[in-house]
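lol forgot to send this yesterday, sorry. struct tokens for the thing we talked abt
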């Protein structure tokens, strides 16, 4: 419920087992919130009419962060950290937000009761308006979800004026600025516009390698088109035994980052989905106790590769049993530049693909040991290997592709004599460790000695399930945002069957007498398409004629019938997202210039 709003699996269960409105009256005093009340008497038991205030949302978040027991805090913050744009039913759950230039878009089965103004404190501080929550709270966990809905912000949208015309699509190229400090770099110096290792003896703690390392995290670049294949053109002096690695990742229209992928001129990085924001990481690695490389220039080109069919079913985050060792090494520096302190909380994995930027938890794992579970960020690379993303399936695993998913190379080397019993550097594997745990994490999960733990890699799931549907007409464009004036990021084939991952409210579009403000996010094209379509074969054929593609016009959308949850509370109806024609559900062109 905290990560992806789910009426069937979470809200109904907690609401009914917790006593319905008693959930609110019981938990509000315990959390010291004064502006949160259940539904008015006109709608008894309807969790969707629970109201809260911004001040109460802040109070709940602070209680969670500062006062909740560690297991509760870890569970809740993990879910909030991974909150998705789409709910379990595929609809936008960022409603109640106020994006620039827009007001909240709420759909109700009947007129809501009058809103009231509530005093958040009994002094002269300003009043706060009550927030009308459409996905109601359940027990304590769902009350925390109220805070998440009020405080969590959606993925940052690309800014800029609306385009006067669509730019040509195709590849896009840019040059990385090597002369200006990025503010996120480790052990790198700049000399005459080049990048060099500052100290060849400084190396990541967990890998325990004789190779010095430095990293530059380049600011992300917003593109005017969707891409999924990135090719670098690197100009560098690379002495024997040294290395320069160019890793890239992308952020999609729902705000989710892909895993990092190493790219080279002869092996471009192919990202798992289309993105419109790209970030580059440059890693300089010296020869063992020897010379280091020098980077003179880096250019990148990106394009949208042919869209390959993908499954519609959602994949959960991958979980495996892994042998973990205690990292220790207090005072050492991790691969992302963090200086290890006593009782630290982070993990190391043997691949840069899941390495979080310094201070962030963008790539985190849930580690469960004998005593408890902890969610910890990935801040170091190791042990043993540095190119062994053993959590990935063989089809995308960086190296050791003949090993089964979930089995680290070090474990296979130690137990089965794989690779002659050696790691990637030719060292004898002395234990089967596939991850290191910082001291605080190690002891918190209940380990006293090295041992096996259950690990969930929290960035590996695919999010909400998708639905494959055909488009109708020609000249269907995917937009960066759900508006016809937003940048066109992709042009769909005529016709096409596309995967829809999420549906949001956006600009209202009218076509052939039908009006709709619903837009669908297409993960394979990195953008939104209006859901406007026709209701008959004749009208549908009219929609395919370019002459009918005028600018979006306002028009009413009749709400559908209210749906009811198993707890008896009403649920907001879906807008007319899909329209029926010839017995097949279709998506139509956006009717934009």
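and heres what i got for the seq, position by position
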């Amino acid at each position: 419920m905290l990560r992806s709003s789910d009426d069937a699996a979470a809200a109904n269960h907690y609401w009914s087992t917790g006593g319905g409105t008693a959930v609110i009256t019981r938990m509000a005093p315990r959390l010291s919130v004064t502006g949160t009340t259940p539904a008015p008497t006109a709608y008894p038991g309807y969790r969707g009419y629970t109201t809260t205030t911004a001040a109460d949302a802040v109070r709940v978040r602070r209680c969670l962060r500062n006062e909740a027991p560690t297991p509760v805090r870890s569970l809740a913050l993990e879910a909030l950290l991974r909150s998705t744009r789409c709910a379990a039913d595929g609809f936008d759950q960022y409603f109640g937000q106020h994006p620039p230039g827009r007001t909240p878009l709420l759909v109700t089965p009947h007129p809501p009761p009058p809103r009231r103004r509530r005093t958040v404190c009994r002094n002269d501080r300003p009043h706060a308006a009550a927030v009308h929550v459409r996905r109601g709270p359940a027990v304590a966990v769902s009350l925390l979800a109220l805070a998440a809905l009020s405080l969590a912000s959606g993925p940052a949208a690309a800014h800029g004026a609306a385009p006067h015309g669509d730019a040509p699509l195709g590849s896009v190229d840019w040059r990385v600025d090597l002369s200006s400090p990025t503010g996120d770099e480790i052990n790198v110096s700049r000399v005459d516009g080049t990048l060099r290792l500052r100290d060849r003896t400084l190396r990541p703690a967990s890998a325990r390698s004789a190779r010095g390392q430095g990293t530059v995290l380049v600011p992300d670049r917003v593109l005017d088109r969707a891409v999924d294949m990135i090719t670098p053109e690197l100009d560098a002096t690379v002495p024997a035994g040294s290395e320069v690695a160019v890793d890239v990742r992308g952020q999609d229209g729902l705000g989710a980052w892909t895993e990092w992928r190493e790219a080279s001129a002869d092996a471009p990085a192919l990202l798992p989905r289309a993105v419109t924001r790209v970030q580059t990481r440059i890693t300089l690695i010296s020869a063992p106790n020897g010379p280091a490389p020098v980077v003179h220039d880096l250019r990148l080109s990106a394009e949208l590769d042919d869209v390959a069919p993908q499954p519609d079913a959602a994949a959960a985050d991958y979980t495996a049993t892994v042998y973990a060792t205690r990292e220790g090494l207090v005072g050492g520096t991790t691969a992302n530049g963090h200086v290890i302190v006593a009782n630290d909380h982070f993990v190391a994995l043997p691949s840069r693909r899941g390495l979080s930027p310094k201070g962030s938890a963008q790539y985190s794992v849930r580690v469960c040991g004998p005593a408890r579970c902890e969610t910890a960020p990935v801040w170091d690379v190791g042990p043993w290997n540095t190119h062994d993303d053993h959590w990935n399936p063989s089809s995308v695993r960086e190296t050791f592709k003949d090993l089964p998913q979930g089995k680290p190379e070090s474990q296979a080397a130690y137990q089965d004599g794989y690779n002659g019993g050696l790691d990637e550097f030719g060292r004898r594997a002395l234990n089967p460790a596939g991850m290191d745990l910082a001291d605080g994490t190690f002891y918190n999960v209940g380990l006293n000695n090295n041992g096996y733990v259950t690990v969930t890699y929290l960035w590996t799931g695919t999010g909400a399930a998708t639905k494959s549907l055909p488009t109708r007409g020609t000249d269907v464009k995917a937009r960066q945002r759900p508006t016809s004036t937003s940048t066109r990021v992709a042009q769909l084939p005529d016709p096409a069957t596309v995967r829809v991952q999420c549906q949001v409210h956006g600009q209202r579009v009218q076509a052939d007498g039908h009006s709709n403000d619903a837009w669908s996010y297409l993960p394979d094209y990195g953008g939104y398409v209006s859901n406007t379509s026709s209701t008959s074969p004749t009208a549908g054929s009219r929609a395919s004629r370019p002459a009918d593609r005028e600018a979006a016009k306002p028009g009413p959308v009749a709400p559908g019938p209210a749906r009811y949850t198993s707890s008896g509370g009403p649920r907001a109806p879906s807008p007319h997202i899909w329209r029926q024609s010839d017995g097949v559900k279709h998506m139509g062109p956006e009717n934009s210039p």
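The CA atoms of residues 192 and 455 lie 45 Å apart. anyway ping me if u want another try
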